[in-house]
Amino acid sequence: MTEAVPLPPSSIAYLGPVGTYGEQASRRLAFLAAAPEAQLLPQISIRNVVLALLAGRCGAAVVPVENSVEGGVSTCLDVLWESSLGQQEPLWIERSLILPIRHALLSEGELADISEVLSHPQALGQCSLWLQEHLPAALQLSTSSTAEAARLVKGSRFRAAIASVPAGREHGLPLRAYPINDQPGNCTRFLLLRRGAPLLGSAACTSLAFSLRGNQPGGLVQALQVFASRQLNMSRIESRPSKRELGEYVFFVDLETAGQGPLLAEALAALAPLCEHLACFGSYPITDDTVEL
């Protein structure tokens, strides 16, 4: 195992356009990665963000992996797994950022005039109670990002966007309500991805994913016992369908590994024979910006 420090990226892809929470996370992660001058490259989808990195069009990529209200971001998990199965250079996680999310309702019309609300599906879900109370008759329309929603409602008096305050400033949209997220502690965890072999060691968190050798009784328990027997705590576990057949799943696990490099090496060696495929995405630090609120 190695804990060498990678060179700072010169360019970073993120889910655009300008004004998204992804852009906020990218600027913060660029600073943490000693690359404050890195060029930010907006992409139209999370999948396109990762494809830009795999194709070598950028040095790093920032993607959302989970939200405290809506849970895991399935597209992110799927593309991470898919990248581990391909022939190209694998992806690994250099660091993680927990970003507070504060949604605003943006519109050129008054609240009483709004009949359509646009936003990313995760943002709509994070504001569902507020929408039910204040705009129960409004049609909810999904967009590729919160900032794209802000762009689309510009010039309309019957449409509103759920997006960030900076997105409202970017598009010159009046702020009609803020904050409107149902949970005050709403936050999203973002990952800074790089290409190459993962760095595994004693950093705060280690992420991996695995599929088991057949659907057998106790198979998952046996795999998880590998961590429990070594006192490696799981901070997160999530399953995604393998997409090959019904009832077959891929399991994503985050382990608390601060100072636990040797035990992590033991666990991975014991886990590998139980798996059809084991993908390690690296050990990395986590920065929690919610503690600054």
Major sheet summary line? 7 strands, mixed
How much is the radius of gyration in Å?
20 Å
Q: What is the fourth-level CATH superfamily of the largest domain?
A: Periplasmic binding protein-like II
Count of distinct strands: 16
CATH architecture of the largest domain: 3-Layer(aba) Sandwich
Give an overview in words.
Helix content is 28%, strand content 32%. The protein is an alpha/beta fold. The protein folds into 3 domains: 11-101 and 186-198 and 288-292, 3-Layer(aba) Sandwich (D-Maltodextrin-Binding Protein, domain 2); 104-177, Periplasmic binding protein-like II (D-Maltodextrin-Binding Protein, domain 2); 205-284, Alpha-Beta Plaits (2-Layer Sandwich), CATH 3.30.70. The strands form 3 sheets. Strands 1, 2, 3, 4, 5, 11 and 16 form a 7-stranded mixed sheet that branches. The protein has a 5-stranded mixed sheet with strand order 8-7-9-6-10. α2 (46-54) runs parallel beside α3 (74-85). The mean pLDDT is 89.
Structure summary:
The protein contains nine helices and 16 strands. The chain has helices at residues 21-32, 46-54, 74-85, 121-126, 128-134, 146-153, 165-171, 219-228, 261-271, and strands at residues 11-15, 39-43, 60-67, 71-72, 91-100, 104-106, 116-119, 139-142, 159-163, 175-177, 187-195, 205-212, 234-241, 249-256, 275-284, 286-288. A hairpin with a 7-residue loop joins strand 13 (234-241) and strand 14 (249-256).
